[in-house]
Amino acid sequence: MTRKRLKVTPELENNCKIEEAPKLNNMTEQNHAQHQSSSSIASYSLLYTISQIIGITLIIFVFYWIFEFRGGFGFSEPKIIFNWHPLFMTIGFIYLFANSILHYRTFRNQRKSDLKNQHAIIHGCVLIFVLLAGWASFASHIYSIPSIPNLYSLHSWLGVLTISMFLSQFISGFVSFLYPGVAVQYKEAIMPYHFFFGVLTFVLAIATSVLGFGEKLIFSLDKEYKNFPNEGLFGNFIGVLCCVYCGLIVYMVTKPEYKRLPKPEDSVLLTGNLD
Questions:
Q1: What is the secondary structure of the chain as a DSSP string?
Q2: Does the pTM exceed 0.70?
């Protein structure tokens, strides 16, 4: 018997190629996506480490500036009481605020329900530090002899605006994402605005802080400021470091590749069928 040879026609050859090509392409795309994901996580981890170093350095520098040049901390006299204001604002409105808006991306493997609660708790801590800082500012002005007027500078106006926006974000976020029974459609509609105004509030907090450092240096050093004193140079460096920190945090929180990927339990959480 003679075995018939199967004739490979161009059509048959093309069909084979069409069936095999998508598999190869899909495998390539999956490998590329996995590689890109691991690369993004690695770069985020590096930037996050840098941001932590800068944030903690800012707190240490502000503490050193007040302790070395502004008489330290205490409650004995108005000038000393005021010194709590820049330290508490740096801890709350700069460092903790930055970590709060990065929280979802930093701990991406945790349950979203846990991340929501932690996000709210950190914001609550920010609010406590901001209120204590505000008290220090108002108390130092009231108890000064003669008393110092409140809310007359651009720094104070921006401060009131920033705190008002933060409170609005805190309340609206609690009602929209933590209060039970809120419709999924409402959560999805409000999320882009919550994200945008959260980042905007953080940028305003940095801008207000930089204005505050400059204002304090000008009031304290007066004409000596233009002679490049050590305190003036050190204070200017703190302001520049705040701007660098702001740019780094905004970049990390707005870069799409660093976004936390949705998990299967997230969709269940949105519908309210599982805690």
A1: -PPPPPP--HHHHHHHHHHHHHHHHHHHHHHHHHHHHHHHHHHHHHHHHHHHHHHHHHHHHHHHHHHHHS----SSSHHHHHTHHHHHHIIIIIIIHHHHHTHHHHTTTS-HHHHHHHHHHHHHHHHHHHHHHHHHHHHHHHHSSSPPPSS-SHHHHHHHHHHHHHHHHHHHHIIIIISTT--HHHHHHHHHHHHHHHHHHHHHHHHHHHHHHHHHHHHHHGGGGGG--HHHHHHHHHHHHHHHHHHHHHHHHH-GGGSPPP-HHHHHHHHTS--
A2: yes
